[in-house]
Amino acid sequence: MDFRMRIQKNRNDLTKGMKKVAGFLLKEPAAFAANPARKVAEEIGVSETMVVRFCHALGYKGYGELQKEIRDFVFNLKNHDKEEHTDQETLAIYEKRMLEDQANIQQTAKMVDPQMFDLAVNKLAEAERILVAGRRSSFSMAHWFTFMLNFVYGKARLFRQETDIHLEDLLAGSVLVAFSFYRYDLDTLWLVEEAKKRGIFVIGFTDSSISPIVDYADALFPVQLTEQSVPDAAPVTFSLLNAIISGVYAKNPERANRHIDAYESRRLKNFFID
């Protein structure tokens, strides 16, 4: 289990100061690799003791053990980038971009918690109603996921702030799926907070295991890349969503096929002429 997975696993036990250290580590791992704890603490604006406590909270014996892992991580990342640059010099731009997406998808797949994945799939497959929320750069993800959930299961609705009455029509056993990527939309965060107050199960997709949505998500899927970039995160997120849809389908293939057949029937009737 590397430092990123440890942060994700222990996020609820981290203090506000420790989360500040975690955020800096995720964004600037090279700073940890190159500097002593005192220097890192100065850059973050916390005490050296806080940095050491953070290491202990993640299960490391001390800063030295974490630093050794970070150094190996940075070294391997740099070597991978060099090899990738050499290999891609003769590739067309579409090949470069697609290979980068492939590498990010593979990296994220290794970070997915199987128990979290199964929990999310089970909750979606058993939900009375599903509300999917994502605004601005996250809207396309929310829209596609809503469509696919209705394609194989039904009961999903896309949240639209201008027309919705928010959570008033969600029943016990409902699920809220929320997409929250940097910069984090305040309306989505408000919606998630309200859902938690009402006891609604929340599934969150975000770009960091310490983003604002973390405190409210019952099942969290952080797409943590080297840099916070929605264009880079989007292909990875869509791949993860597709895997979840496959999981929902597999829970009850007969029901899913009935929904698919019904959708195709409506589509042919309403949108095409024989």
UniProtKB/TrEMBL annotation:
Q: Which SUPFAM superfamilies match?
A: Homeodomain-like, SIS domain
Domain HTH rpiR-type stretches: 1-77
Q: Superkingdom of the source?
A: Bacteria
Any GO BP: carbohydrate derivative metabolic process
Protein's recorded name: RpiR family transcriptional regulator
Query: Which classification does the entry list for the species?
Result: Bacteria, Bacillati, Bacillota, Bacilli, Bacillales
Gene Ontology MF, one: DNA-binding transcription factor activity
Keywords in alphabetical order, please.
DNA-binding, Transcription, Transcription regulation
Q: Which residues form the SIS domain?
A: 120-254
PANTHER family xrefs: GLUCOKINASE, RPIR-FAMILY TRANSCRIPTIONAL REGULATOR
